[in-house]
Every structure is written in structure tokens, then in C-alpha cells.
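sry for the spam today, last one i promise. C-alpha cells for design, 337 residues
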């Protein structure tokens, strides 16, 4: 896979916060009952605590006591292949996140996320973490890669091929199995600048040569997830706890050094989502074929024409689409309305 080096330079800044941060969404799972989260895995019926699950089996989503320090945590087991069935997603439904963001105090334009991730079995080549998404694409996130044992960032980039990208090379630090690591990520709504912080390390301002970032993306959903990466051949069980999503002013988090590294697997973008008649695929590589599946695992006939998929004959509901470039296959979730 082609690698694109990131540019590097130093940036130092100090900011004084006079506006109190606002919590948009937060969860620690302690009020839930040990065992399956419950609900359905079609993303339509919530389980404990209003948690929605997407794909896999109910038994893959559990509330567990990983260690005494964390009390109860969310534990997700993904699949053992580099295919659709191996990804797992959870989120809180409703308009609470987007409504809270829309009602934020003037000046709180710094979208911030923090989550504790348990590397767990750390097997296969999978990414476990969380991200914030707008109505049309991902905005910002961070994941643990069980193959490299390193942390990846996720960010939206605009350029020759706009999309939500997986950014590798943000740090050389590695985290073995059964280790907790705290990840923080942030997005400046006004400038589009994107940041990541690993544990107690230095915050990093992310930049990719040939691309720009865009401001103005409003969050509508926060996903806690595991997803296979190219070449995955084993499942992994990861844990998640104590996440918080906030709106704040740019503050001391921004004492940042820009990162030098590589851009890894590009994440394709599908839009509009929900779709009515046509689902568009935004991707720098030529898409050779697609496969669409409903949540029973049934393959649905879908015609691809120049990165456009005809979904007019699909019933209303949630689907997965495999996007095949001939080199790799990526999976995206979309809704037909």
C-alpha cells in the first residue's frame, strides 16, 4: 500500500480558558448489569443503558469487570476475518449529542473526546477505539491497532481524495495485551485542526502533505467500536471505559508538536447517509466492486456505476457495504430511508 509521509514542524501555544467546558455525552458503564448488553445487533433495538449494537452476535457485547480500578466496563469481541462480519459498533441513539452541541455556550468550539481502552487479547489485526461523526462522515477519533500494538488517529481530510482517514505513525509507543491506555482527541470547529494525545504524552497536531482540514463539522454520533484491518486473521477482545465528549475553548491541551509519520489505510466515505436512491462512494482508489448485506447476513443485489450504488430497490433499514478495490476491502454502514 502506498505510504504518504506527513510533514513536520513545531508549534507552541498557550491559551487561557474563561468558559467552562460542557459535557455533551459521557459513560462509565458502572450502573449496568454484568453480562450481555442485550438489545439487537441490527442497530434498531437498544440494550442496557440505551446502548445500540451493530453487527456480530449479542454475546459479542458485554458488561464486564476487567479490573477493580475500573469497576464495570464495556467489552467487545470482534471477528477473525478481514470481512464485514468482523466489525462491531456501539453508540447511544437519539439527538442528545447533536442537541447538546447545538446548545453549547458561545466560544466552546473545541470538540474534545477522551476514552480509556483496554488492549485485551490484542490478537489479529484490528482497530479498537472511538470516533465522532457528522451526518455525512467521520470527524475525529483514535484507535489501538492490535497488529502493530500502536495508536492510530482518525481524521477528515480534504484534498485530491477527500475522506475520513486512518492515520498511522503518530507515535512509536507500543502497548501489549491486557493494558489500559487513555486516548484523547480533539477537533477545532473553526479551523478544522485535529489533535491526538496518547496517555500522558505530548498532544499532537496532525497534518498530511497535500491535504487540508475543514472546520464546521457538527457531531451527531459517538461510536465505540472494533473494526478489522487489512489482513486480519484472528479476533480480539477489547475493553472500553470512562469516555467523555465535551465542548470547550481551545486550552492548554494545545501545547502541541506536529506529528511526523505516515498515512495508513484510507477510509472510504459513503453519502448521502441515509440514502434514498443512490449511495455515492468517495475514495481515492478505483472501486472495482461492492457487496451489500442486511443484518441477517443476506447478500443484497446492488449495481455499481462509477462509484455510485443503486439502492432504490432496498427496503428501509440499516445495511453494510463492502467496498472492494482489488487490493483491500473496506466496510461501511449506511441507512436506506
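last one done:
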Amino acid at each position: 500500500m502506498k505510504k504518504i509521509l506527513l510533514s513536520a514542524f513545531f508549534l507552541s501555544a498557550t491559551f487561557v480558558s474563561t468558559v467552562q467546558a460542557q459535557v455533551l455525552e459521557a459513560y462509565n458503564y458502572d450502573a449496568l448489569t454484568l453480562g450481555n448488553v442485550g438489545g439487537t445487533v441490527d442497530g434498531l433495538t437498544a440494550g442496557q443503558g440505551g446502548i445500540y449494537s451493530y453487527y456480530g452476535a449479542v454475546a459479542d457485547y458485554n458488561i464486564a469487570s476487567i479490573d477493580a480500578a475500573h469497576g464495570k466496563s464495556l467489552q467487545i469481541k470482534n471477528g477473525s476475518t478481514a470481512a464485514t462480519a468482523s466489525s462491531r459498533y456501539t453508540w447511544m441513539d437519539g439527538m442528545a449529542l447533536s442537541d447538546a452541541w447545538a446548545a453549547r455556550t458561545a466560544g466552546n468550539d473545541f470538540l474534545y473526546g477522551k476514552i480509556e481502552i483496554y488492549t485485551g487479547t490484542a490478537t489479529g489485526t484490528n482497530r479498537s477505539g472511538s470516533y465522532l461523526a457528522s451526518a455525512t462522515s467521520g470527524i475525529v477519533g483514535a484507535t489501538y491497532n492490535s497488529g502493530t500494538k500502536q495508536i492510530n488517529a482518525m481524521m477528515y481530510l480534504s484534498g485530491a481524495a477527500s475522506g475520513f482517514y486512518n492515520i498511522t505513525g503518530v507515535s512509536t509507543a507500543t502497548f501489549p495485551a491486557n493494558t489500559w491506555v487513555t486516548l484523547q482527541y480533539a477537533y477545532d470547529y473553526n479551523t478544522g485542526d485535529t489533535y491526538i494525545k496518547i496517555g500522558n504524552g505530548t498532544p499532537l497536531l496532525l497534518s498530511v502533505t497535500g491535504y487540508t482540514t475543514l472546520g464546521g463539522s457538527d457531531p451527531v454520533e459517538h461510536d465505540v467500536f472494533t473494526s478489522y484491518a487489512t489482513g486480519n486473521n484472528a479476533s480480539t477482545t477489547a475493553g472500553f471505559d470512562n469516555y467523555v465528549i465535551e465542548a470547550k475553548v481551545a486550552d492548554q491541551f494545545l501545547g502541541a508538536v506536529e506529528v511526523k509519520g505516515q498515512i495508513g489505510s484510507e477510509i472510504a466515505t459513503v453519502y448521502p447517509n441515509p440514502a434514498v436512491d443512490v449511495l455515492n462512494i468517495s475514495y481515492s482508489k478505483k472501486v472495482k466492486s461492492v457487496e451489500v448485506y442486511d443484518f441477517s447476513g443476506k447478500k443484497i443485489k446492488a449495481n455499481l456505476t462509477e462509484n455510485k450504488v443503486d439502492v432504490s430497490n432496498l427496503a428501509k433499514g440499516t445495511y453494510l457495504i463492502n467496498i472492494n478495490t482489488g487490493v483491500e476491502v473496506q466496510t461501511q454502514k449506511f441507512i436506506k430511508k
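The first helix runs from residue 96 to 102. ok im logging off now
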